[in-house]
Amino acid sequence: MRLPQILHSLHKRLQKMFEKRTEGGESATPSIQDIAGRLAEEQQRLRQLEATTAPKERTLLVLGSKCVGKTTAINKFFDREEHATRPTLALEYSFGRRTGSGKSPQVMNVWELGSLDNAEQLLEVPMRTHGLQQLAVIIMLDLSQPQRFWTDLECAYKGLRDTAQQMMEKVAPELREILEQRTMERVGQRNKEVEKLDPLPFPVVIVGGKYDVFSGFDPAVRKHTCRCLRSMAHLIGGALLFYSQKMPKLAKVLRDTISHMGFGSPAHPFRSHVVDFNEPLCIWFGADSWSKIGDTGTQSVERIGATFGVEVPQLQLEKQKLQETLDPSKDPGFKESLIDEMRSQKNEELAGLMRDVLLRGKFESVQT
Question: Burial level of 207, CB count in 10 A (0-12/13-18/19+)?
Fold first, then answer.
């Protein structure tokens, strides 16, 4: 939902309130103090409604490029030991629980989408299961392959946008007001560029992974890549963070960000604001602008992608390569001794049957 629509709906609600006051015999021309008071009352009502309907758990959806470190980041956050990380095939679920002093336990559901190829239905599972009110999303991209990551970013954004639009059409008016208010607070209610944004109704953090490799690229490639990611993050009302598991400082920021999105603490996981393309970017919600990025006019996903495609040509992989998947039964990370032995036995039996069929066919051909 575009922000002009949100502002228009808020204006209509305020207009109705003053119409009611006019019908009651009061002045039809409210003062600035009246308008400010009514607006404060409306915001207080929404906060109270949000407090009474707030969920006891939150949900984090992690998706993006393959082999960029999504599983590693999740395992590090949960302090899980990593011997050999297995590739995520479809959609994996895990959860964390935190108990504070004198407070009810907080639960964070974590869903990881392994691949963006034909994953529209899988993408809907965590969003429809837990709802939009408690959802946060991390889109992790492979900065070591700037000539390929745009496809992943565009696919992830469109999947999230389409599902969110379908769900927003069916939510209750009270929940819609809460989501719209949260969106305004994230992007900044005083932001003069709100009409040029198209934010999603839940927080999204774009994470550029493998920054240790990206930092050694040509300055022109780094400049255009950073500009593209800043434009996309600003357009959807998101935050932007560069990350590398090999760089402890950046790994800690991502860990704090996951904790913030799942448990609400720390309150400010981004302890610095960095926009220089020579440094790892770190830009919180509502902290960027088109003028700072260097873009003018109304932006769109298509325009951002087209501009980036000219500056950093994107590789178009063959369809066969895109559909090509490894056999998980032969992956050492998926070893299951009992199942592997049974499968080996069945393969030998099948090979024996194939040999018998071939020999029988040759024998019959000789007789004829």
Answer: buried
Q: For residues 197 and 6, what is the distance between their CA atoms, to the nearest angstrom?
A: 12
Q: Mark residue 174 as left, alpha or beta (left: phi above 0; alpha: psi -120 to 50; beta: remaining).
A: alpha
What is the Cα–Cα distance from 338 to 335, expressed in whole angstroms?
A: 9
Instruction: Mention every residue, 6+ apart, whose C-beta is less than 8 A from residue 338.
Output: none
At 142 the three-state DSSP class reads strand
**Distance from C-alpha of 273 to C-alpha of 280, rounded to nearest angstrom:** 10
How confident is residue 171, by pLDDT bands cut at 50, 70 and 90?
Answer: confident
User: Can you say how many angstroms the Cα of residue 185 is from the centroid of all Cα atoms in its chain?
Assistant: 19
Q: What is the dihedral of CA 207, 199, 48, 27, to 10 degrees?
A: 150
Give the residue from 349, 325, 360, 214 showing the smallest Cα distance to 278: 214
Give per-residue pLDDT as tens, 115-155: 888 778 888 889 988 889 889 999 999 999 999 999 999 99
Query: What's the Cα-to-Cα distance from 116 to each of 96, 112, 240, 282, rounded to whole Å?
Result: 25, 11, 20, 25
Predicted TM-score (pTM) of this structure: 0.73
